[in-house]
## 1
Amino acid sequence: MPSALLQPFFDSVVQGHIPSRRIALGLDVRGDIATIMQKLFCLKSVSPFSLKIVFVTSSYQVLLKRFQETRRRHPLATPSRDVLEAIQQEQYVLQPLMEMADVILDTDQFTIHQLRNCVISSFAPDGQQHMVVTVTAFGFKYGVPAESNVVFDARFLPNPYFVPELKKLNGTDTAIQDYLFAQPAVQEYWERLSSFAMYVIKQSHKEGRFSMNVAIGCTGGRHRSVALAQRFAQQTIKQVTFAVRYRDIERDTYQE
C-alpha cells in the first residue's frame, strides 16, 4: 500500500467503513520510508487497535538466490545497479524500519509452507489455520462453476423430478431429502462421495490451503445436487467451516 493511503485507510477502519478487525498491510522499499515510519509511529500511539509491525528479512545470499530462481526484477534494480547492489540498498534503506518492528522474521531457513505456518501460529486467534469450504449445488445444463476445485456428478441418481408430488419441490425440502436418502444408490454414493471429499479437504488443509470449492451437479440444479450439498455442508471437520450455495435452484422451477 502506498504510504499516502495509510492514514485514510485506518480512518476508514475506525469509522467502520471496513468491517474487518484483523488486517495485514504490505509495505516495501518503494514507499517513502520516512513518511511510513512517521505514520506508523502515530498510528501505534493513538490507534484504538493493536498494531504490530512485522519485518520480513533474509540474508543477501538467500535473497540473491531467490531472485535468480524466480527471475523477477528487484524493485530497486536499474541498468547500472545489479540485483545484489539493489538488495544491499534495500536493506540499508529499510534498516530504521526494522529497528522499529515488533516482530522480525528471518526467512533464511523457511520454505513457503513453513513461513505460512509461522505466521499463522504467531497471529491467528488460536494459533491455527482455518479453512473455508464452499459447497455449490449446480445444474450441468447451466455449466460447471468455473471456480470448482472438485466436481461430483449426481445425474445418475434417482430423479425426484419424475415423482409428481415431488416435482415442484427442491432439495432443501425434507420430502426430497427423505426420498433420495432412502434410495440404496444415493446412500452408497453419499458414503463414497463424503469419504473421498473429506480426505481431500483434510489433506488440502494440512498443506496450508485456506479455501476450497466443492461442486455437486445434477441436470438442473434443483433436486439431487441441492440435497447432497446440504447434507455435505453439515459435516464437521476441526478448523474447517462449510458454506453452501444453491446456484441454480431458482432456474426452470419445474424442470430438471
Note: The mean pLDDT is 84.
## 2
Amino acid sequence: MTQIKLENPTSIRYGYVARKGSAVCSSAARSNLSLSQQGSIRFYTHKPRKAQRTGISDERSGALWRNTFLASIVVVAAYKYAPEPTEDAYLTRWITLYGSPRTLWLELNAKHTAMEQANSEATILLTDAKKPKVHRYRYPQTFDQISPFLTPVGMDVDTSNFVVKGDRD
C-alpha cells in the first residue's frame, strides 16, 4: 500500500485515499503537499498509457504480398500452358471429341416425343374412363304391370326381352 506522508496533519480532515499503486488526494490536501509529493500524486492518479503504434508496419510476409505472389504464379502458368491463337481451346477440343453427332440427338428426341405422346394418350384414356350409368328404380316390378290400354299409337314399348335384375344379380 502506497502512503504519502502529509506535512500538515489537518489535511487528514480533507481526506486522502491510499491504494495499491495509486494515491488520490483532494484538492485541499494537495495544496498542503510539497511539489515533489504533488508530482508523485499526479503521476499515480492516472493509469499508465499503453504504447501507441504509429507508422506503417514493416512486415514482409503480409497477406497482400502472399496473394500477389500466388497470383503471379497463376498468371505465368496460364501464359505458359495457354493454347496458341490458331489452336482451339481445351474445352472446345474435349467437346468435339466426346460429343455426339447432331443426327443422333434428333433421333433420340423424336423417339422420346413419340413415347411421351403415347404415355399421355394412355393417361387421358384412363382418367376419362367412366362407369356406365345405372338407372336404379325403386320399384322394378312396375315394368311387369304395363297396361296395353291408353297407350298412344307408336308409343308401345316391346318389353318381352326385358329382364329386371335385383340387388343380388
Note: The chain has six helices and two strands.
## 3
Amino acid sequence: MYSTVMSTKGQVVLPARIREEAKINAGVELLVYTIDDEIRIRKMPKDPIGEISGIAKHLDIPEDAVKQMRIKDDELRRQKLGF
C-alpha cells in the first residue's frame, strides 16, 4: 500500500511502482469513480462496449443496438481527441 498527496489543483501522482505494475504510462486514460467512501482508479478499457457485450446477450439487447453503441463510443472518443 502506498500513500500520495493531492495538489491544490486536485492532481494526484500515482507511485512509480503502481504505474509499473499496472503498465500505466503518460497519456493512458483512467476511470476514476467512488464506491461508498473509496476512490477507485482503473485503466479505461480499450473497448468499453465490448466489455459489456457479454452482459448484453443476457439482457436480450439486439446485436445491432450493441453495434450502434460501439459506433457512438468511437465517435465520442474521436471528438474528445480532436479527430
Note: The CA atoms of residues 5 and 26 lie 19 Å apart.
## 4
Amino acid sequence: MDHQRLLARTKTRIALLRAAAAGDVTHDCGEDSFSLRDTSTGQSRSSGVTARAKEQLAAEWIRIGPALPQQRSQHQIEPTELGRRILADVDEQAERFLDR
C-alpha cells in the first residue's frame, strides 16, 4: 500500500474515532454505515469506511451502543478504552510536532 493511501485511511479512522468520542457518530445497522454529524452545520453524512476498517474499528476502537429511542436501526457509537488512548496519543504526538 502506498504512503498516500495509508495516510488517507489513517486520517479517516482517526476522524471517525474523534467524532465518536464527541458523540457525533451513529451506526445504521440496516445499511451497515456510519453517519457523522457535522456540528457546525447540523447536517449528517455517511462515512465511506472500508470493510476492513469497520472490522478494526468495531473490534478495537469503538463499541456500538444501544439503539436510539426514535430510530431502532440507529445506534450511538462510543470509543473503547483503547480508542480513547489512541486519541490521546495522537493528540500528544501532534502537540510534540507543533512544538518543534
Note: The domain at 3-99 is CATH 1.10.10 (Arc Repressor Mutant, subunit A).
